Amino acid sequence: SPKMAIINLNCVIIGRNSEKETFTIEISNNKKYELLKHMIKECLAPLFDSIPSTQITLRSSPDNGPIYKPMVRISKNFTTSPDENGVHIYVDPLRN
């Protein structure tokens, strides 16, 4: 299994892809994407307060890109911190 590492993931909400809207989450890559969703929700409070974290989808690209599944470990995609200038996680809140 990949070596555990604390990594930085740059995130942006889909539809708000401007640079000033990007935020970084520091997380251990042996955690699952489910925890990352909770951390994103907390970081953006009160924005997603009415949305359960199960309704937040994490994608690898903005245009309906592949989904990072909640029960998968982050290390499956990120063994180390990725390029610090890129966007790594596109947050797709399913608003009702």
TrEMBL record:
Its main location: host cell. GO terms for cellular component: extracellular region; host cell. Keywords: Secreted. It is found in: Host cell; Secreted. Residues 7-58 form the Crinkler effector protein N-terminal domain. The keyword Secreted applies. This is 21450_t:CDS:1. It comes from Dentiscutata erythropus.
